[in-house]
Amino acid sequence: MSHTSPSSAITRAFVLAAGLGKRMRPITATMPKPLVEVGGRALVDHALDRLAEAGIAEVVVNVHYLADLMEAHLERRKGPPRIVISDERDRLLETGGGARKALPLLGGAPFLILNSDSFWLEGPRPNLGRLVAAWDPAAMDMLLLVASTATSLGYDGLGDFHMDKDGRLVRRAEREVSPFVYAGVAVVQPSFFADTPDGSFSLNLLFDRAAAQGRLHGLRLDGQWLHVGTPEALQAAEERVRTSATQP
Q: 46-55: buried (b, 16+ CB within 10 Å) or exposed (e) per residue?
């Protein structure tokens, strides 16, 4: 596996911040979900702070729902050095379509994709740096940050993937339980979007294409993933952040 520094290997990221946040209502009736606060900071700020710490110089953020509020918030940010808006006001494009629309802003090199509500408590080593260091384009079409379903907070699903000893991911079968859930962070090559649909589609299409070739890999999150999907989960995440801050 390659172990280049974050700054030299991957310098750009795409942050998904366009969604409607329906499960977070009524909070999101007047506020886009990325601006919902956990631990006194907006979810999107937690994501952008981590990108800045990982040496990511340029971030593209897509906007759709309450886009003016998102843009005003992003304009006040001090870092990463360059934040560019991908405007989806006209049409919501889902995760894959949003990333495809942003490709001209992201250049030709591999880049990170983050859900704006990807939120976790770090372990000893920052996870974005670990993910970038683990990226190996010779072996992978996509590399996903995955979290243990057993230790995640606010997640009660069946999981997404099984992972073999080499880090290759396969989907769980229907009605099966799997040990890993997608934690909302991926590395991908722009060329992997070739032959994707025009308009709206999910990143799951790309996950499945990579998995079919044995080229979907995962890296286990070091720390604890907090799934902030509902007002109840937000409350639980707040409590977990508070207790972690008081632990020695």
A: bbbebbbebb
Task: Please list, in sequence order, all residues whose beta carbon lies within 8 angstroms of the beta carbon of residue 213, skipping any fewer than 6 positions away.
Answer: 141
Gap between the Cα atoms of 230 and 232, Å rounded: 5
Domain segments of the chain: what residues? 9-246
Could you tell me which of 65, 55, 51, 69 has the C-alpha nearest to residue 14?
51
* Nearest residue to 148 (alpha-carbon basis) of 225, 217, 240: 225
Q: How far apart are CA 33 and CA 70, in angstroms?
A: 10
216: which strand partners? 142
The residue behind tokens 């209502």 is: 25
Residues 70-97 have a mean pLDDT of: 93
Close Cβ partners of 242 (under 8 Å, ≥ 6 residues apart): 39
- CA–CA separation, 17 and 135 (whole Å): 24
9-246 belongs to CATH 3.30.499.10: no
Q: Tens digit of pLDDT for each residue in 91-150? A: 999 999 999 999 999 999 999 999 998 899 999 999 999 999 999 999 999 999 999 999
The owner of tokens 């998995």 is: 211
- Over residues 146-193, the pLDDT tens digits come to 999 999 998 989 999 999 999 999 999 988 999 999 999 999 999 999
